[in-house]
Write a structure and sequence with these properties.
By secondary structure, the chain is an alpha+beta fold. It has one helix and three strands, in the order ββαβ.
Length: about 70
C-alpha cells in the first residue's frame, strides 16, 4: 500500500512504506518510516528492500508461512 500525503502530520514523513500481509492465518501490517535518506541513495528502493526483509524476518521469528497476496 503506497500513498503520497501532502497535508497533515504524516506529510512531514516523506519516506514511509506500509505493507499488509498474511502470516499463517493472521493478517498483519508493518509500517516503516525513515526520517532521512542519505544523498545519493534511492529511498524508495531502500524502503522496498527493507520491507521485504522485515516481512521475511517476521515470518521466521513467528514461524508462519508468509503470503503477501
Amino acid at each position: 500500500m503506497a500513498a503520497h500525503l501532502t497535508e497533515g502530520l504524516l506529510a512531514e514523513q516523506p519516506y514511509q512504506v506500509s505493507a499488509k500481509f498474511r502470516c499463517g492465518s493472521k493478517d498483519r501490517m508493518i509500517h516503516i518510516y525513515l526520517t532521512h535518506v542519505t544523498k545519493g541513495r534511492d529511498g524508495l528502493k531502500d524502503l522496498t528492500d527493507l520491507m521485504r526483509i522485515a516481512q521475511n524476518r517476521y515470518s521466521q521469528i513467528h514461524d508462519c508461512a508468509l503470503n503477501t497476496r
